[in-house]
Amino acid sequence: MVYDGILLGLIVGFIRAGWKNGLIAIGNLRIKGGWAFPILLLVQFLLFYLQGDIPFFAQFNGYFYMVIYVVGLALLWINRHQKGLGIIFVGVLLNFLVMMANGGRMPVSLEAASVLDPIYIEMLRSGDAVSKHFLMDESTRLYFLGDIIPLSPPYPRTQAISIGDVVINVGAFFFLCQLMGKKSKDYVALSQESS
Amino acid sequence: MGGQQRLIGLLKPKEWLVVAICLMGTLLFLSFFWPEGFSLDRKDWVIFYAMVAGAIVLEYFMYKLPPEGNHQSMDSTIFLASLFIYGVKFSLMVLFVSAIIIVINRRTVAWWKHYYNFITYSAMIIGAHWAFQWMDGTTGDFIVGEIYAFVLALIAYFSVNIILVAAYFFLLYRNQLIPVLALFVRESLFAYIGILLFSLVLVIMVLKTGFFGILLFLIIAVLLSHVFKQLFLMYHEINDKANKDQRTGLFNHSYLEEKLDEYIKLYREDGKTFSFAMIDLDDFKKYNDMYGHPQGDKLLGFVGSIIKEECEPHGYLAARYGGEEFAIIMPELDKNKARAFVNHVRKRVNNAPFDGVDVLPHGCVSFSAGIIEMSADTYEKSQLVGLSDRAMYISKSKGKNVVTVYGEQTYLPQQFEHEINELEQQIRIFLSKDVYTFKHSKRVFSYAVDMAGILELGEEERRTLILGALIHDIGKLEVPREVLTKRSKLDKDEWEIIKKHVTFGKEFLLATGKYTDLVPLVELHHERYDGGGYPHGLKGTEIPKLARMLCIIDSFDAMTTERPYQRTKSFAEALDEMHRCTGTQFDPELVLPFIRYIERRIELGDIPDEALEAMEQQRKQEARHDDSRTSSG
Does the predicted TM-score (pTM) go above 0.90? Predict the structure, then answer.
């Protein structure tokens, strides 16, 4: 997962709205069921931590991630009318589809992975260490939704990403821009409306 | 089955052609993916995504070019570059995926327009592909020696585009084919050449640097689009300044004339009709004198903004014609619909609050309007303006705040116009005493003008009826204000005073001397056909014909507008009442033409506001009445 869209969205948002208004805007973030997102994140970390210790988690890791994905998708779906969140939904869905089709893991292409550290490629090849990813081959389904896009210089980061990741980042960028682009008086109206 | 039947009935033959084009295009598109489908190498998928993203971005950053409504999108460069480097299937797939995303993004545009657009692009790509193949062009490389293959492909791409777009306008909007074709070629040729050459640049860049080429190209294209947008805005601003009236935000006189010429041409060539309205603010000079010109300008701006608001959603063209005059061109409206529309605007203007309008006679902002529908007899715009002007002046003479259609009432009582003005000055006194009587006199006058035409009266009789109608209640000047405006039922003594107004009126006319010929109308307009009226109880033909006519008009208006001492009737109810009183109160011979006249007005929806308002009030009052009755019972 890359977070460049979020970063870029925040930068552009702060430039456009100014420091104070931007912070106010973020403070006024309204998402239905928004409390669930940090919990999902927490569960993910927990899983990552536990999979080393308890074999049960390591074995069914993929399925746990699927459940998290479904909950996340549901949350995005009920918020899809906010600009950007619908796009994020599509991006997550694309990633979800390819992982579903491949037993809960994300396929990575060799060409894309070649920009990464060779050690990482070895780990992918052996197929055991990195639980969320695996190297794609001829039998991989929906391979074109997998991590096939290599990011390398001049881009300031080396990583292999999927088209779903790109879409998610575009959505995050739009979401943050519109969130921070609102005038503060809109918030007065909004808060009055909700109260 | 039922749905299909309806569809067949729904579409015209030409629209079926569009459907046929779409179907053929779809089959052509699908034939490229039959039977082996679409597949790519893993690394080509990356470039595929980049191309799709590029097509979407370029479609979004469309160039807007002057004049209005012209725009050019650079997404063609992407499709062409894809075609030249990766082949036709790749290019079609880029189109397909980007089109789906654009459709989702622009749900407001009708689906079939998106669809036709998609078919057009597919056909263009396929056309270019065939041309390229025919010239043995090498896919995936750029060889300078093969430049003719590229050029021919670009020509094919352009031609297919022009033909299909022209077909679209020809089949769906009935434009003529050849002129439309010529127009498109003329307008888009140069922009197009630029875009097509750009595609070659993109081919070279992608071949050389892959991904990075696309990115660089997108940045340049977006920046260019931004620059063009600035240019367009600048053009727009200057254009606005040249065509618009700064005070009101409406179009100006010269632009109106230009457009009027265009509409007249459209009428001549394609038979597209339109109506033209001339609008003049009532008593604007008075307002100006009272509050000064800056405030008067504000009033103009205010009325202008209302007119603009009403016209814009319908696509009507509103302009400031001069001083306090406005003009509206209403395409596709016949005169009756135009009347309804202008009347609607008039009511909105009447009801709009504005500072200081209480000095105006109507107590609100008002205008008089004349409407003319374009017809074969009208050969020039000055004639349109002149005739609608005439109708507008009839509105003025009918008491202002009226809309008149030219042709229904062209007979302006011009010969005695100054007499009308003179008498109008007399009844103006009622403005301070009893506004109802003032307005009533004007309405009765307006009905009388119409009836004089319908009854085909001679010149002398016309004048008598019209002037008599205007002045008939002048005797009420002598009736105490309390009696005139009393809301409750009048007692016997008060009735006697009211009844005396006919005699007062007669004395008034005799004293001034000039209008003694109107005396019979003023004195006898309350006589009844059966002899039950006042002041003399004359019967049948003992009452002069014009007085009998005036009695009918006067009674009708009294019935249908609010009087303190009686219940208001709707037009239909009033007509029933008139039928009932035919032969008793009214002369049967005269009442029938009047009833027919009113029926026609009801048909046209042309009912005076006061009558409608009075009805509304009446209904409310009765509702209240019923409420109190039920609650007490």
Answer: no
